[in-house]
Structures are given as C-alpha cells and as structure tokens.
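B., you asked whether I could sanity-check this one before it goes into the benchmark set. Here's the sequence:
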Amino acid sequence: RVRYAAREFYNREQYVHFDSDEGLFVGDTPHGEKVAKYWNGKPEYLEQHRTSV
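And here's what the prediction gave me:
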C-alpha cells in the first residue's frame, strides 16, 4: 500500500496535511482547519493531490 504525504509547516509546526486514504486535507491546528476547509473546497486542487498518489 502506498500513501501520499503532503504536509505543510509554519514556524516548525505542522498545521495541515493531506490524508491520501480520505483524499482530503486535514487541519492539525485551528489555523490548519481553516486552510484545509479552503483547500478541500477547491476541486481542481484536490484532484491534483489525489492523482499524485
């Protein structure tokens, strides 16, 4: 099984990551939840990450 890992950091803290099992971004901090909601609302951006798996 292959998993795609896309993680975003700010100030050495991970705030959002892409869950390849779900095919969605997941927020790890309150700010990351807002970013994940925004990115999950962009179908073309999600598709780009889903096809990278």
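One thing to flag: The chain has one domain: 5-50. Otherwise nothing jumped out at me.
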